Amino acid sequence: MGRPGSFFGVVCLLGALLLLLPAVSRDKAVPGWLAAGQAEAAVTVTPTPQLPQVIVRENFIQQAVKCIDETLAASGETKRYTVVPVNVPAGLRLPWGEITYRTYAPNGIRKSLNSAISVEVLVNGEHYATMKCIMKVRFFGKVVTSARRIQHEVPLQAADLRIEEREDKGGAYATYTDPQELIGKVLFSNVSEGTVLHSGLVREPILIRPYAVVNICTVFNGVDIKVPGTALETGRRGAYISVKNDSSGRKVRAKVIDENNVMVVQ
After folding, report:
1. pLDDT tens, 29-63?
2. Is CATH 3.20.20.300 what the domain over 206-263 is classified as, yes or no?
3. What's the pLDDT tens digit per position in 235-244?
4. What are the residue ranges spanned by the domains of the chain?
5. Does the domain made of 140-203 have the CATH classification 3.10.410.10?
6. End-to-end CA distance of the chain, in Å?
7. Which residues in the chain show pLDDT less than 70?
8. Read out DSSP for 26-40?
């Protein structure tokens, strides 16, 4: 069996450590700025005689939002955006003195992803602490969407398209802002009404099909040359396909220019 004195010493040590912990009280009310559905209780940091000043969570949010506004303004961002606090310090105790802030986004502002904002706290102009705030910035912009269900490989018309405001999540594909850019193009797959059209969905229509008669064009020593040929593959504008020179029987790769012409690049 252990000695009673040892057990008493451990209890005293634990009691001393508890006294050193920050005086934090939990409030059942959830602040209005918390995201909908967030279940965690609000945390209130209270002052102590040694550290009589307190910066509350809302102050850190204000500083982080100000940093985001200034960073985006400096970058020339024009899209509408909203800011949602994700993980913000509950508060900070400080000694007496004038409180000022310096803020920066060490990794920039990420579209619809968590962005870290560093809030440096100074007391009488001297560094006291740096607090990290995790914020989500959601961007919104006007983009082209489908006005109705559209079948793949059917050339797009003006009636198929409309402009809507949608969240810009910064995906790998570029979206469109002008419906005229899409007139005459086709889709890779069927889409439902309200689908955001992007470069991963849109492509050029088929202009040339196998066995179509085409002009094989090239430039030799500054002279334009055109000979009759036969397409051996399906081709879209800008794509390279195999064609056969009807005069020589030779097969070459050529770039589709339009419905009637392909270009061999020397």
Report:
1. 333 334 433 434 456 889 999 999 999 999 999 99
2. no
3. 999 999 999 9
4. 42-138, 140-203, 206-263
5. no
6. 94
7. 1-43
8. EESSPPTTSPTT--P
